[in-house]
């Protein structure tokens, strides 16, 4: 079976590497063709071209604007050829836009599965992502064997938009933890405690977390090549605040991390990994 894949950024590339390592044949499309020219996958010229041979197509894009463009743009996926095909959307969308995507695809006989990803490059390469899906239960059950090739933990929340909202809620933890760990690291250094030793102690103390395990070596090496960018976490925390506003709820602990990551973006560091927020505190 050939699987279509649209969006080969950092995460998309890692997921494609995982799928191809399992001898799954991929046909890929990326809006910036120059960025994928050296990849060995079978490339197509438009999203619509994937529909000729692929019954399942993954989207792994930056935001809802990008998803809408892939669906409705010139030679996009939203056409008669989509009938009976399934779109698995790994994008962290806006929680209202994703409702529109469900309707747009389902109304013409396609299947849309909202499927945001928890995790970044390292777990993706090992097939150890976490995914939360929303959509029709029969669609989820049909493609679950494919999801099991990229994810260790799989959850299903049937009501459309629930998976997206849960992803945003999860990223409140992610952004808050990263900002706190970065500040703790910089503070320890100010106390003349070696950075590597401070991170080791935090890793068995109050800082013990998946995020610290994933970012310890990057912080030690000050390797800020992006696995999950400042731009991405900044976008997600903005969406989370929009959600809280719509629910007429205060959102106390998201405000400061969001502004810190906004500062990183303003400083021209948006494409760096979000652990580079350490630089602000240092």
Automatic annotation (TrEMBL):
TM annotation in the entry: none
Catalytic-site annotation from UniProt: 167
GO MF annotation, one: NAD binding
Span of domain 6-phosphogluconate dehydrogenase NADP-binding: 2-155
Protein's UniProt keywords contain tRNA processing: no
Entry-linked SUPFAM superfamilies: 6-phosphogluconate dehydrogenase C-terminal domain-like (SSF48179), NAD(P)-binding Rossmann-fold domains (SSF51735)
UniProt xrefs under InterPro entries: 6-PGluconate_DH-like_C_sf, 6PGD_dom2, 6PGDH_NADP-bd, HIBADH-like_NADP-bd, HIBADH-related, HIBADH-related_NP60_sf, NAD(P)-bd_dom_sf
Residue stretches making up the 3-hydroxyisobutyrate dehydrogenase-like NAD-binding domain: 163-280
Lineage: superkingdom: Bacteria
Keywords assigned: NAD, Oxidoreductase
Coiled coil: none
Protein name: 3-hydroxyisobutyrate dehydrogenase family beta-hydroxyacid dehydrogenase
Protein's organism: Arcobacter venerupis
